[in-house]
Amino acid sequence: MSEHHDDLPAFCHPVSTKLLFGVFFGLIGLTVLTVATSALGTGLGMPPAFAFPLAMVIATMKAFLVCAFFMHMYWDKSFNVLAFLSSLLFVTLFIGMTMMDTGEYQPTIEAFDINNLANVEVSE
Amino acid sequence: MAVADSHDTHDDHHDLYDHGEFIAHHFDSAEQQFDSGKLGIWLFLVTEVLFFSGLFVAYTLYRTNHPEVFEQAHVFLNKYLGGLNTIVLLFSSLTMALGVRAAQLGRNKNCSVYILITMVCATMFLGVKAVEYSHKWDMGILVRSAFNLTYTHPTPTTEIGKALHISDYLVYLCIVPALLLAGFLAASVISKLINKAMLAKFMVAMAITVSGYFLGVVVGVIFMSATDAETGSSHASVIAEQPLMLMASTQDEHDEGDHDEGDHDKAAADPNHEGDHADHEEHFGSHPADGGEASFDAHHPDPSTLSRDVGIFFSIYYCMTGLHAIHIIGGIIALAWLYWRSLLGHWRTDYFGPVDYVGLYWHLVDLIWIYLFPLLYLID
């Protein structure tokens, strides 16, 4: 994976160009795949419900490639990796907690809408 | 990044540690300095992820509660143009990673070339983005409070717009890059005249960087006109169907909240006129401009649910892609700094931290786009 140069300091891990180009073409392939499945997916008999999860799975595969090799996470200190991945935990908490609360004001909104709609109809 | 004075005054340290030119005196070794910087940039990237996550929350919340809006709105985004931009950004990530490798091996010249390619890709991304934005502004696709979908493309009034048949907005978006280009070219000539060869080289590189923007604009315009027929993002035939589709799916929704917005009544179809679909189609087909709009207006005193909802999708779209574009601009500035230091030949096998850190930031910007692209462009 990373080249071994005896004269380099321990913290210097140049990634081989072969691997970098490999990752790049992998990313391009996945991009083409995600556009193609989006454009043709339902035409090829893919259930519409699959489209979003599939796009997210492909995006996550791309993100994995970028993180692991372009961002050197594969060779990085595990504490740095942990620090970065912990942010995803907090993002999950952020989205999760907010989603749990979305219904909170729905009755108020509905009541407001009904009143407004009634007003509009009266004014007409 | 703390940079020590080149003449290390701490003579007592010299026996124990090999302090390079850029190893700050408060670090024991090059490795300690590198690791500290690396932890720092990772923590910064954590804050960046959390910064963007607020917008992802808005997106998730809105898409969960109003999936139909996303179905309706995504047709206005050209997924092939978005795909092209994704590839440009991925390529810039590759050249960035190659630049980091070059810096790690102390190859300053290679590093400067890779960084220059990265910057050109970055500005090209922005150029394509400018084409996309101006195309939407032409159609009245703006943030929710200004959303006024007309499907018309106003004829350009600026001289350049008339000459090149491009949108006025695109001309406006090119003003700052054009000034920058002129400025950098002038600066390179002046630097040459006062015999500052390296500065001249830097200014030429900046001029090349800014020309990447115009390359992106040209590619974007060509690509958009070539793919329009497929995606239907501007063709009248497809667009004429949109209001019907939107009306049909928003028929029973009366969750309109704001009635004080004057722009609604212009914007779109009335949910209550199911029987008039054929009429509407005719209006749209025969009077793509104000005529069709006026007849809609007459039919629809009631502000439409559609315009509000689709407008909010584009509020989210502009916030997410706009914040991302600001990060690209920030990245270009950081890359320009790296380019300058590459010219000065600062990178060595035990000192390449800045390239690595900016590289990480650049990859994160790419990473965010990797998610933005399917979330915004590939809704089906």
Individual helix count of chain B: 15
Number of helices of chain A: 4
Tell me the series of helices and strands of chain A, N- to C-terminal.
Answer: HHHH
The CATH superfamily title of chain B: Cytochrome c oxidase, subunit III, four-helix bundle
Summarize the structure.
Chain A has helices at 17-40, 48-70, 78-100, 106-123.
Write a structural description.
The complex is a heterodimer of chains A (124) and B (380). Chain A is mainly alpha-helical. Chain A folds into two domains: 1-76, no CATH class; 77-124. Helix content of chain A is 71%, strand content 0%. Chain A has helices spanning 17-40, 48-70, 78-100, 106-123. The radius of gyration of chain A is 24 Å and the shape is flat. Chain B has 380 residues and is an all-alpha fold. Chain B has one domain (11-377): Four Helix Bundle (Hemerythrin (Met), subunit A). Chain B has 15 helices and no strands. At the A-B interface, helix 1, helix 2, helix 3 and helix 4 of A face helix 2, helix 4 and helix 15 of B.
What tags apply to this protein structure?
heterodimer; A: 124 residues; mainly alpha; 2 domains; 71% helix; B: 380 residues; Four Helix Bundle (Hemerythrin (Met), subunit A); 0% strand; flat
Helix-strand blueprint:
The complex is a heterodimer of chains A (124) and B (380).
Chain A: H1 17-40, H2 48-70, H3 78-100, H4 106-123
Chain B: H1 11-14, H2 30-65, H3 67-73, H4 79-104, H5 108-138, H6 159-164, H7 168-173, H8 175-193, H9 197-231, H10 236-250, H11 264-267, H12 277-286, H13 290-299, H14 305-343, H15 353-377
Helix pairs in contact in B: 2-3, 2-14, 2-15, 3-14, 4-5, 4-15, 5-9, 5-14, 8-9, 9-14, 10-12, 12-13, 14-15
